[in-house]
Design a protein that fits this description.
alpha+beta, 4 domains, 19 helices, transport, sodium channel, transmembrane, cell membrane
Length: 659
């Protein structure tokens, strides 16, 4: 009821307002607004009125155009980066050190024995020694079943239009023809031939480099004996052998339990010979051990998992971390690790070290000094950037959370790839963590895993999906390193240094260490100046309002009050529209009522007469035919009131006397 009264009063107030038509309302607005231009339209002559109307329309269009640009700029949520330099006591970074070789060869030799015999025999056939000088003496037969799971093949490119695939260990040639290959890597399912393969033909010892047009490739099939294969070509046989050995060893080691793999790796007490942080001595017990699939056992100093992170009191090498490592290069796996040294990485506390992407090598027989500078990155969150604080809003399941580490985009990308591989290939890759209930891929249980892995790794679509799903962290700390090296120990001091280190580790007076396995590291802050690169909003709501007001005031001399006036006329126009709609509805209702009763309604006297005189009824003369129409009813005519009026005698005629 109160709402109805409100609308009734509002309609009454509107009827007392500026006018009842749109034209009257517009004239009233132009005459009373504070905006420049509209007043001149109604007060000037015809010519000036047209000029002012054109100018007002032009400048109003410019205002709306500028407003659109400003609002679009604000909604783009652009940022500006600012660089500031500060000085404070900083936390020393977490330092992860690993051996470039993941396992001791003496510990895994029994697992890789057949694989090593295969690759040695394959290399002999690839190098094709001169007949009579072959090293193929009486030896146990090769296990070709392991070979046929992921074989190495030679590609004969003497005929570039029709290259021939040659199996290294296949000696029989049948009438089926040779298998052909096309391109560096064929797509899945596009293998050209299904014939038998032949062995590499002998090449004369005096053949030129132009005549030896062979490439080594890894053949990957969806399952053993399938024609759905792809070839990974390499420009060098060394690359092909390393890639093939990694795939085969991955399949073998994936079946070994984690604790056994940790035991076969380098232990902290054997690898970390000396440790000094600032003026405080430390040892291998101050390091946290984790297993890294690429490098085996890795050890992290100042990870901050169990204890508070250490602070650095001063810059300079004397206040940093000093390590002496033994990498035992003589126990490297010959075909798995072609680089010798220590792999190390500086990173934030409680973050997982991705050494393959962000690590650096330290060479054996050298003293490597690493000066550190700190960059702190502060990104703005949504809507200015698509960054995340802790990864909780990322749709990818973080498989590295089992290490209790913080979110990083590297962890997200690898988790996304592992999840895709589990979904598509049915097993997980050995180099990434596994969710519960899933096993690592191997040749026995998953014969086509290498083909599936290679296809997935080269798929741009899956890679782009992972990139779009993962987000950068909003706050990050990066460590910029300045690296310098020198030979260590020097020739003059190597004798006594090796004697002391050998005695401390092995309790032996004999020298058990040499220059090929010793590394010295110095890690320190170069200076306490740290840089902070922070983002701030390039456009704010204050900037938007001031810019909108500036454009409106410049082009039309308006203000916020002018906008309120414009809002007022819009409201009045709406009310007038409502009144017109109500009037139109009422008129439509009346027209419908008239269509239902086409004759004119009876008068009041007729209604009263019909009610008092029962014999008086209105009849529709048009209801009966013209032949059957009733005669008029007799009745007494109404009196002639003029005959009762008294008239003078002179006006009476002779007829009056006769009467």
């Amino acid at each position: 009821m109160n709402l109805k009264k409100y609308f009734v009063r509002a309609l009454h107030r509107l009827q007392k307002g500026p006018g009842y038509t749109y034209k009257e309302l517009l004239v009233w607005y132009c005459d009373n607004t504070n905006t420049h231009g509209p007043k001149r339209i109604i007060k000037e002559g015809p010519k000036k009125k047209f000029i002012w109307f054109f100018l007002t329309l032009l400048f109003a269009s410019l205002v709306f155009w500028q407003w659109g640009i400003l609002i679009n700029t604000y909604l783009s949520y652009s940022v500006t980066s600012s660089l500031s330099i500060g000085f404070k006591t900083m936390k020393f970074p977490a330092v992860t050190v690993c051996n470039a070789n993941p396992f001791k060869y003496s510990e895994v030799k029994h697992l890789l024995k057949e694989l090593d015999r295969l690759i040695e025999a394959a290399l002999e056939r690839i190098l094709q020694p001169v007949p009579g000088n072959s090293s193929e003496t009486i030896s146990p037969p090769l296990d070709l079943e392991l070979w046929h799971q992921i074989p190495l093949v030679l590609i004969d490119e003497h005929d570039k239009d029709n290259p021939v695939i040659l199996d290294i260990f296949e000696s029989n040639q049948t009438a089926g023809g040779n298998e052909t290959a096309g391109g560096n890597q064929t797509s899945a399912g596009n293998q050209i031939s299904a014939g038998n393969q032949t062995a590499a033909p002998p090449v004369p010892a005096n053949a030129t480099s132009e005549e030896k047009k062979y490439k080594l490739a890894v053949k990957l099939c969806s399952h053993q004996g399938s024609d759905n294969c792809t070839y990974r070509n390499f420009t060098s046989a060394a690359q092909a052998v390393t890639e093939w050995y990694i795939l085969q060893s991955t399949s073998i080691l994936s079946k070994v339990p984690l604790q056994e793999r940790i035991r076969m790796g380098y232990q902290a007490e054997d690898m970390i010979l000396a440790c000094l942080y600032g003026a405080e001595p430390c040892n291998y017990k101050n390091f946290t051990q984790i297993y890294h699939p690429d490098h085996g056992n890795c050890y992290i100093f100042n990870w901050g998992m169990d204890e508070e992170a250490l602070n650095s009191s001063n810059p300079g090498a004397e206040f940093g971390l000093k390590l002496i490592l033994d990498i035992s290069q003589q126990d490297y796996i010959p075909y798995l690790s072609s680089a010798a040294g220590a792999r190390l990485m500086l990173h934030q506390q409680k973050s997982f070290p991705f050494l393959k992407d962000q690590g650096i090598y330290a060479m054996a027989g050298t003293e490597t000094s690493i000066g550190v500078l700190v960059d702190e990155l502060e990104r703005m969150g949504y809507p200015y950037s698509d960054c995340t604080v802790n990864g909780s809003d990322v749709p990818v399941k973080n498989l590295y959370r089992q290490y209790n580490t913080s979110y990083s985009i590297q962890a997200c990308l690898r988790s996304c790839f592992q999840n895709d591989m589990i979904e598509i290939c049915g097993c997980g890759h050995y180099m990434f963590p596994l969710p519960e209930g899933v096993n690592y891929c191997n040749n026995d249980d998953n014969p086509g895993w290498a083909y599936c892995y290679s296809s997935l790794r080269s798929s741009i679509r899956h890679r782009q999906i992972c990139i779009d799903s993962c987000k950068e962290t909003c706050n990050d700390t990066q460590y910029k390193m300045t690296i310098s090296m020198a030979d260590w120990p020097s020739e003059a001091s190597e004798d006594w240094i090796f004697h002391i280190l050998s005695y401390e580790r092995d309790m032996s007076t004999n020298v058990t260490l040499d220059r090929n396995g010793i590394i010295k590291l110095n890690i320190y802050f170069q200076e306490y100046n740290y840089r902070t690169i922070s983002e701030s909003a390039a456009t704010t709501i204050v900037w938007l309002l001031s810019s909108l007001g500036g454009q409106f005031g410049f082009w039309m001399g308006g203000s916020v009050l002018c906008l309120i006036e414009f809002g007022e006329i819009i409201i009045d126009s709406l009310w007038i529209t409502i009144i017109n709609v109500i009037s139109w509805c009422k008129g439509l209702k009346q027209k419908r009522a008239q269509a239902r009763y086409p004759d004119a309604p009876p008068t009041v006297s007729e209604l009263v007469e019909a009610h008092t005189n029962l014999g008086f009824q209105l009849e529709d003369t048009g209801a009966l035919p013209r032949d059957e129409a009733l005669p008029p009813e007799p009745g007494t005519p109404p009196p002639n009131y003029d005959s009762l009026r008294v008239q003078p005698l002179a006006s009476l005629g002779p007829d009056s006397d006769a009467e």
